[in-house]
Structure formats: C-alpha cells, structure tokens
Design goal:
Strand order of the largest sheet of chain C: 3-2-1-4-5
Chains: A mainly beta (444), B mainly alpha (73), C alpha/beta (157)
CATH superfamily of chain C: Glutaredoxin
Structural class of chain A: mainly beta
Shape of chain A: elongated
Oligomer: heterotrimer
CATH topology of chain A: Porin
Number of domains of chain A: 1
Number of domains of chain C: 1
Helix content of chain C: 40-55%
Number of strands of chain C: 5
Strand content of chain C: 15-25%
Strand content of chain A: over 45%
Radius of gyration of chain C: 15 Å
Shape of chain C: globular
Distance between the termini of chain C: 11 Å
CATH class of chain A: Mainly Beta
Largest interface: A-B, 103 and 60 residues
Order of helices and strands of chain C: HEHEHEHEEH
Distance between the termini of chain A: 34 Å
Chain lengths: 444, 73, 157
Amino acid sequence: MANNDKRIGEALAVAACGLLGAAAPSASRAAEPGSGWDVDTAFLFYGESDGRVKDASVSALAIRDYGDERKLSLDMTLDTLTGASPNGAIASDLPQTFTSPSGRSTYTTPAGEIPLDSSFHDTRVALNASWSQPFARLYSVDAGLGFSSEIDYQHLGLNAGITRDFNQRNTTASFSVAYGFDTVKPVGGVPAPFAAMGDAVGEDDEGNASGQAGSNQDKKVLDVLAGFSQVLGRHSVLRVNYSYSDSSGYLTDPYKVLTVVDPVTGEPVLRTPPPGVEGPGGIYLFEHRPDSRRRQGLYTELRQDFSGNVLQLGYRYSTDDWGIDSHTLEGRLRFPLGESGYLEPHLRYYTQTAASFYRYSLANGAPLPEFASADARLADMDAYTVGVKYGHQTPQGNEWSARLEYYEQTAKAPAETLIGNQPGTVQMPDFSAVILQFSYHFKL
Amino acid sequence: MTGKQALLILIAGSSLAGCANLGVKPWEREVLARDDMQLDAQPLDTAIDDHIYFSKEGTSGGRGFGGGGCGCN
Amino acid sequence: MLASRLIASTRVLCLAVCMPFLSGAFASQPSLDLSQFRGKVVVVDFWASWCKPCRQSIPWLNQLRARYAAQELVIIGVNVDADRAEADRFQREVPIDFDVVYDPQGALATQFKVQGMPSTFVFDRAGKLAATQLGFNEKHRQQHESEIQSLLSREHS
C-alpha cells in the first residue's frame, strides 16, 4: 500500500516489541492446559473525516497452553485501506495538479483545499508467532517471529525476551529485544531526496515518475525494552517500562512532498508542464528524512481495583533525536454492568513537539536544508480520544465486546517554519476519526 | 549520554530500587488474578490502538510486558 | 533420635495447640489438628479458586487419595479464598474428594509460611514435615508421587 500513513510494517516492528508482553502470552489469557486454543478475534472499522483514510481489518490471536506455562501464540491481521491522505503540499488560492506516485496520471486539488492523494488502495497481511516457557521456577523466556506484507512494504522481525520474578512474585523484571528488517518498494520507485515531482509519463509506460534512486530501500529497527512490574497491594499493580529504539536506513516517506513557495508571499510557485504533457502545476520536492532515528521512552501504568471496578491509568513520555518529544496520558475505568457485562469509558490525550526538520513549505531560491518533511505527523500536535467499550460474558465463559471511539487530531506548524504571508493562511490537515471494533473471545 | 537520557534511566532505576518491599502474601492475590487486572488484559485492543496511533502520530510503542496476576507456580 | 522426634512432635502439637489458640480469638478461624493423624501420612494442600494450576493439582490429589487411602494417606485441602462463594463455585467445577478447611483470613497460610500458590506440605507417619511442594507442574508430578509412596511404605517408628 501506500504512503507512510499506512506504513504498518513499521508499526509491527515496534508493535512486536510493544507486544512482547502479549506476544509472549501471559498466564491470564491462555486456556487451561490441554484444553485447546484460546482465541480472540476483532473486526475493526476506522474512518476519517472528509473522504480521508478508511480502513477495515480483521485480526485473530490464538494462544495454546501446552501445560506447565509453555505457550504458543499465533496472530494474524488482514486489512484493507482506501481513501485519501495529505501528500505534504500546502493549500493554495488556486487549484493544484500533482502527478500520482505511479507516474501514470495526475490529480487536481480544488482551490483552498489541502491536497490529498487518493490513489492508494491496499491490502496488508501480518503474521506473528511466539513461544514462551518457564526456565527454572522464577524465570520465563520467550521468542517470536513476525512478518507483514503489503504492496509497497515488507517487514520481517525477530524478538526474544526474559522475565524473572522476585519477592514471592510481587516483583517482575523483564528484558526483551526485537529486531526488524523492512523493505520499502514504493509505487513509482524511490525518489531522490528533494527531487522535483515530475510529469506524468502516461498509461503505456511502467510508471517511473519518481524512481531516480532505485526501486527499493531497506530499513532496520532495533528495539529494546526493560520492564518492571510491582504489586503495590491487594488491589493494585504498577508497571514501568523503559524503551529504546534505533532505526536506520530509509526512513523517508517516498510519497510525500514539500511545496516550494515564493519567499515574500508564501504562495506556491507556479509551473507549467511542457506542451502535450500532464504534470504538476507547481514545484513540489520529495521530502528527505535522516537515515537514523534514536528514540527513548518511559511508560508507566497503574491498575487499581475499587470493589470490582478497575481503573487503568497510563503515562508515556518519549523523546528522540529528531526533536519529537511526546506525552501520552490515558485512562480507562471498567465497571461491571449487571451479572455478566461491563462498561469501560476511555480517554486519551496526546501531545508532541515537531521534528527539527519539519517544514510547512520551502522558500524558492533559499538553500535546501539537509532534511525536510511537511508530513503533519512530524509537526507540533495535540490529539485526544474519547471512547467507550461494552463487553458481555456468555454462560460458557466466552466474551463478546464492542468499542466505539472518537479521535481528533490538531497539528500546528511551528511559527519559524512559516514563510511570507503564511501565518495568516496556514492550513494543517487536521482530521477526526471514528473507530468501531467488534470482538469475540472464545475457547476452542 | 544527554541529560535527558540520564534522567530517564534514573527514573527507571529508582523505581526499581524503591519498591523492593511492597507486595502481598501469596494467598492474597484473588483480585490481582482477575482477568481485568492483568497488565496485558486486552492484547488485540492494545495492538489495534498501537497500530492506529503509530500510523497517525510521531511516537510509537513502549508498552509491553507481564507481571502482576495470580503469582502462581 | 528421641530428641528430634520430640521436637517434631512438639511442632505438630504446636499446630494442634496454637491453632485453637489463634482460632480462639475469632470464632470463624480455622483449626487444623494434625495430631489426630499420627501414624498416617498427611498431605496439606493450600488452594484457591483463582489459582489456575490448582485445576491440575486438585485432580491429581484426588487420584492420590483414591490410590493410597487404604495405605493411610490423608489429604486435607486448605482454601484461602477471601470469598467463600468463589471457593464453592470452584468446587462445583472441580470436585474435591478430600476434606477442606477454610482459611479466609490466611491464618493457617501464615502459620505454614506459604511461599506461593499452590503449596503442598507432606507430613510423614511420625508427624514430621517431610516435603514441601511449591507450585504445581506436570513435570514433577511423578517425582512427588514417588516421594509420597516412599513415605507411605515406611513403617511408623
């Protein structure tokens, strides 16, 4: 699939590590030994406002307990993506024309609107397998493999971890490592850094509108997680995780561009394609990000029971060498409803600072920076989520649940990245999204 | 190592040191053993959320791991 | 020899004596008088409804009781659920063929210094603590059974 929006393979490299606790299945989730598989399934619908991204997916997680805490965990996700994403160019008073990534056609954005590229429809499949088992009475080890594939992205990952209990199992220390190897094969080829978006080459040719730097690139990600959980009392447990992530290789979004603007007005510089050829109506340069990114995070979570109601509070701080610092605060409160149901409202707040190389646009005639991206996901940003989940347990001990969430994201371009009259006319591709998920958890 | 990095490690490390004597007796884990008290209680929800926020924001991951629970075996 | 047996007897007597002392203060406290089982091999197993490995350890203990009751094996389960209803619900799913003593405040668990769940304490025919099993797993099942068999085969001396 598509642009970085959907760079799900990367998500998996991180999610594999982030899921090291879940991928290495815990005693609580697995079936009674020998009684077969414990299966969790989910159907997800994700839809953004204004004709933007829509995603439908199905995932399943199956855990089998082989007795004595030895567990196999398999999970699979299939998802399809449609809809439009911002291509990084800014809105203008005039309509703007862009060449699509394949190079075979063009698309036009009406005046006053943020340019969106809607040419991506993609299907992704992801598979993960992991094994965990005890090692001496107080230790547990786990190892896993992950794979995902979509039209322009492939991911392969390995992970391994160890946990040890202390203090009559009141304290658990864990350490895990994940390594991912990803290949990016963008539609239309890999653009050279800051190469100008070219004219469309027409239906007959194999699109190569941008492929001046070859057809594919790699990326490697190393993730390390050191965790610690502590029982605080009969009704509460605390977790603290430190994470370190080192990505290297091709970290640029091959589909995103920056608009070249007039340094005085801040308006896009106009361009006329050669006669008989369709192409961009402005100067749009493909973005270029550093080839390495080091990130550290600290995550802490508290689970507290209040007579059968469970409060979950989490806070994550993250900082990296791209200049993106973020804070995430999240809370859930689960309370029983009737004999076998529960209701769980959820709130999440997220804020981040912009990457040092984030630019709203580039000034014509000014020297090019070493790195630049107009991807709003790298800008200053605030986002919040509000949602609720309802679950119900059947007499057989299976559970179905439904979750509805509303997400709103507001990005902001740092003032110093604005040129000319832009401060009065900045338009960021803010959006809201609705998330709807149905799940069924059962034992085979 | 930057000041920020040192601070992070210090926070993580001091959490480790400070809590060594907290906890409950092995037979007092009835609440901690409940499914809804597990730190990885809803793995699919967590994976789905992580994936959505990773795709739409600039930060990802960090959550992982086990502990808590019934403390059995 | 005599001295160690005296010490062992004292320990068991203490259980018999101290338990009522502890339980005297609260009418609902459990008592576990092991002296009545002198001459028999006694297995005391601490279990709870929320303890997943107990779903394997209890059927195993049921099997032991069926196999060795004739050789004077006594099994006593001590339930540590704070909520009696949960213990009852568990027993409807996993039948228990041996006697159960209820210890909701954990007084017996404290007395026995239970280190983890489940915990099994095996006393020989002389009333002396012969083995402690912490946790339950299939791997050690055979070994534990052999230990009990060897204790059963020893004459009460």
